Amino acid sequence: MIPYFHFTTIPLGPITIQVWGLMVALGILAGAWAAGKMARTRGQDPQLIWDLTFWVIIGAFLFARLFHIFYEPQMYAQSPVEIFKIWHGGLSVMGGFFGAALFGIFFLKRKHADIFAYADTAVFGLPLGLFIGRIGCFLTHLHPGTRTSFFLGVLYPDGVRHDLGLYLSINGLILFLVFLVFARRRSASGTYMVTFLLWYGTVRFFLDFLRATDGPIVDARYAHLTPAQYVAMVMIAGGLWLRWYRKAHQ
Q1: For residue 4, which of 155, 139, 141, 165 has the smallest C-alpha distance?
Q2: Which of 22, 53, 88, 116 is the least buried, fewest Cβ under 10 Å from its Cβ?
Q3: What is the pLDDT of residues 21-59, one digit of tens each?
Q4: Domain residue spans in the chain?
Q5: pLDDT of 119-151, one tens digit each?
Q6: Helices (H), ranges, the chain
């Protein structure tokens, strides 16, 4: 099992760096860098990927917050001012995916770029960003799971538990390694989007069954499923549709 430690801040004199925010920022930079390298390999404009990243970040954080408010309406209804206190936490990665896609498509359309091709290239770097960003979730233990005897369980103060931040980070790393294999084989455009939607949606759906049902951090559930699990099903359906669409138009 993994010993429990809570690493939330890095004090640097008068400045305090938030570990979660730092890892997310590093993940975004790493993902954009990887996507930029892929753009160059595909004969695309790497600068357009970096410009796209700016708008994707705005859309991702905006909708990550909106989705979380939608997930927990009672909490924010009791204290509406909490909507604006983002430093208290409360971001949904699933909402982030939606916002990133919405703003990204809008940006690429305005630039008259090939939306499908550039979106696929951008997704190439996404698992790397998730791998690094989710390390921040693990270090701060934002996603405790159910009790377990699994060897990757974390010895929380109240016993050994799954840690979803750790598992999602590992999932991002594995998926990025798979993408590197695809890159070596020069897979067709659309491969990364289809694979990400199917892979991440499936993994996230089943991993959420391990989320804690007791303790200080418990996700809302509707009909015994977390909101993220419903979004994961939409991702899987979208991946299947995109796979069909690619084959139908080849």
Answers
A1: 155
A2: 88
A3: 999 999 999 999 999 999 999 999 999 999 999 999 999
A4: 2-248
A5: 999 999 999 999 999 999 999 998 999 999 999
A6: 19-41, 46-71, 73-78, 93-110, 115-124, 126-140, 164-184, 191-207, 227-248
